[in-house]
Amino acid sequence: MSSSSNASIAKKARxxxxxxxxxxxxxAKLGGFDDLPxxxxxxLTSYRTRLETMSEAESTALAVREVYSAYYxxxxxxxxxxxxxxxxxxxxxxxxRSQGAPRxxxxxxxxxxSTRPMTRxxxxxxxxxxxxxxxxxxxxLLAQ
Length: 144
Prior knowledge:
- By secondary structure, the protein is mainly α.
- Helix content is 65%, strand content 0%.
- The N and C termini lie far apart (49 Å).
């Protein structure tokens, strides 16, 4: 398998791991731990155990790394899941593709242009959270 294919698998696995772990945490906090798949319960149990010896950020990073490794292998990645590449600071040379800040389109104010993507992201996050809460409530009602 080519390295570009493994890199693509790694990116997809890392994105899915971050999203799934955040979802599992929310589900567990809302009382839906027992409704999660056994693998998710296992990752969360390890996460909670580690919280006794390390910070929440460290435990979360390690849990996401574990989920990412599992997903990488499930998706067909070869070998150990690669660590994400650290972003390197840019140097002010002519070779680089530094374009600076995006220019606002004519007719749009700079303030409107800069807040629009954030509003879209906030709305998407709110809708995702609301649907997860609705799912938990639905599961609770079905369990009764």
